[in-house]
Amino acid sequence: MRKFTVLLVLLVMVSPACSAGGTKEPAAPDSGLVGGWPVVETLEIPPESPTGEELPQEGDKPVPDFNPFESMTPEEEACLREGWDDETFEEITTFQRPPGKEEEEAMFKCLNLPSPGEGEGPPKQGEDKPAPDFNPFEKMTPEEEECLREGWDDETFEALTTLQRPPDKEEGEILFECIDMPPPPGEPGGEVGEPDPNGSYYHQVMLAYSSDGLNWTVDDEPVRDHASVPEIAALPDGTLIIYYVDGIVDDVDAIRQAQDGSWVDVDFVFEERPTQKAYDPDVVLLPDGRLRLFYFGPPAMGIVMPSEEAHAVYSAISEDGVVFTSEPGKLITVQNVTDPSVVQLPDGTWLLALSRGPETLLASSSDGDGFELTGSETSLGGVPELTLLPDGRLRLFVTGQGGIRSLVSSDGGASWQEEEGMRIDGKGSVAADPSVIQLDDGSWIMTWKRFMPDTSQP
What we know:
Elements lengths: L11 E3 L4 E3 L52 H10 L2 H8 L7 H10 L31 H10 L2 H8 L7 H11 L23 E8 L6 E9 L1 E8 L5 E7 L4 E7 L5 E3 L3 E3 L7 E7 L5 E6 L13 E9 L4 E4 L5 E4 L2 E7 L5 E7 L2 E7 L6 E7 L2 E8 L5 E7 L2 E7 L7 E2 L5 E2 L6 E7 L5 E8 L7
Parallel strand pairs: 9-13
Antiparallel strand pairs: 1-2, 3-4, 3-25, 5-6, 6-7, 7-8, 10-11, 11-12, 12-13, 12-14, 15-16, 16-17, 17-18, 19-20, 20-21, 21-22, 21-23, 24-25
């Protein structure tokens, strides 16, 4: 299971006609103000605006929840007056009208406010706004800021440091280079906000080989550091490709095997994705040579998804295994599930395995679009990998006690029998998240993840 971090702070200003955003604190509830703004009704002494002028008194007007001009400094006022003429300054700072687009841009620049999100309203009085669990910019030094500004343009710096959006892969690499992210993990039970020492940044992708799918030889050389939940597939031309969750940007990415046996980056593209991120990738090679990617992800930016809520599985399609386009709709929504694994059976039906903690649930579909739970479950382990064997049986690899274990089914996944032994021994650490394919020569290859040796947790 994964922990989702809110990486968006939308603070907006409200006027009688529209909404916009701000980051400054509203006045305290006991300050004699309503919603952080002066009451504009029938008062014996009209309240003053930030410029010392009386606020308009014609009739009752909606009271804004947040006043971005309330704590305006002389420098900020000078900046606004330089960008606006005197009449505009008077009208907007006394809330006679909302700012136009260009006026709003000047306001956000001068007051150092994050740009407002479309359709977002202001924070309601007394309502807690979602906050990120970990803010890498909170204690940023001048040297770190200078490094980031050299690597990012001004617009990117503003968007990322105000948490309007997460960084992409290249931006994330600059972030980690400049701020040395993430900091070393604390002791278990340390302060809230520290990066999870069990998180994907501290994982690495490994390989193992087998002649029979049961007895495996581990390659001690990791394929990729700071990576987790790998999924291996063979393209129609035989090229091996591994999809994984990049621990730096916390999103799906891919590498392929070059002719010399090394693993190189690919320009992975995910078009029209309905989710904020994509986790736990699983790929099926279709009969027509296309690849279908199944994944799990939070539905939208700025939304917290507690683990106990219903989680949806999505899919995408690709002609080349590199550029994927999302398919419409959700395949299945089940409470507290992750890590989908899918196979298509000889009769054309589809079988889906889902992880729910240490358990694995099974679901099926006649067409691969809408899945329903079958009622078949196993408690041997979670983070499953379904594999169709040459004789028509199914093998289910799971992350279980002590490492990677397996079960076999002779009735299409309706029932499962545990196979003796351990497929990959965790050896006191972790061996998890298996993905298995059979090669053309009949041998088997598995990708899996472990903790990076210097950060392994007992």
